[in-house]
Amino acid sequence: MRILAVSDSEAKSLYDYYRPGVLSGYDFIISCGDLSRQYLEFLVTMGNCPLYYVRGNHDDKLIDNPPEGCVCIDGDIVREKGVRIMGLGGSFKYRDGRNMYTEEQMYKRARKLRRKLKKMGGIDILVTHAPARHINDFESLSHRGFECFRELIESLEPKYFIHGHIHMNYGMDIPQRTQYKKTTVINAYEKCVIEF
């Protein structure tokens, strides 16, 4: 199974310099947020496969005007081709915004999914916008990860934890892939292909 993960910055090779077939062969697409409605609609149309997304801290406009043909999994769990995917968008609250949360607020959002988690028998992929605390996040409030995400990784042991928010151009030593216990952590900045 091939999954395309995208986040934060439009990949020129998929959009500006699009060539027929470049979006072929993916089983589904995951967006970790902070991408335009038009870009997501283009990807789902040209990729001709499902696109699941969570909202980023700059995606307030997507609440009232969601991208057509895409499925918001923010605060939900879905199953696609047998893969269980849980989504929790937004970032740590550093100013007013509809997609920004305190640690306590994010913990409560995750807790609301307990019953569905039990019914689904766990998850295979955890999709967020912000990173988990102390796993490739920063100390600054605007780019701090959530403790509850790390706790979810430790308790649920998903195969993949896919996030955005930490732009690869913030520093030369920002890894795209990291292993944390049994989970592969992927920073989906711009784009990343995952072989499931």
What is shown here, in short?
It is built from 5 helices and 13 strands.
Describe this structure in words.
This protein is an alpha/beta fold. It has a single domain (2-195), classed as 4-Layer Sandwich (Purple Acid Phosphatase, chain A, domain 2). The protein contains five helices and 13 strands. It has helices spanning 37-47, 60-64, 103-111, 114-120, 147-156, and strands at residues 2-7, 28-31, 51-53, 71-72, 76-80, 83-88, 91-92, 100-101, 125-128, 160-163, 177-180, 183-187, 190-195. The chain has a six-stranded mixed sheet with strand order 5-6-9-10-12-11, with helices on one face. A five-stranded mixed sheet has the order 4-3-2-1-13, with helices on one face. The protein has a two-stranded parallel ribbon with strand order 7-8. Helix 1 (37-47) links the parallel strand 2 (28-31) and strand 3 (51-53).
Can you tag this structure with a few keywords?
5-stranded mixed β-sheet, globular, 5 helices, Purple Acid Phosphatase, chain A, domain 2, alpha/beta, 196 residues, 6-stranded mixed β-sheet
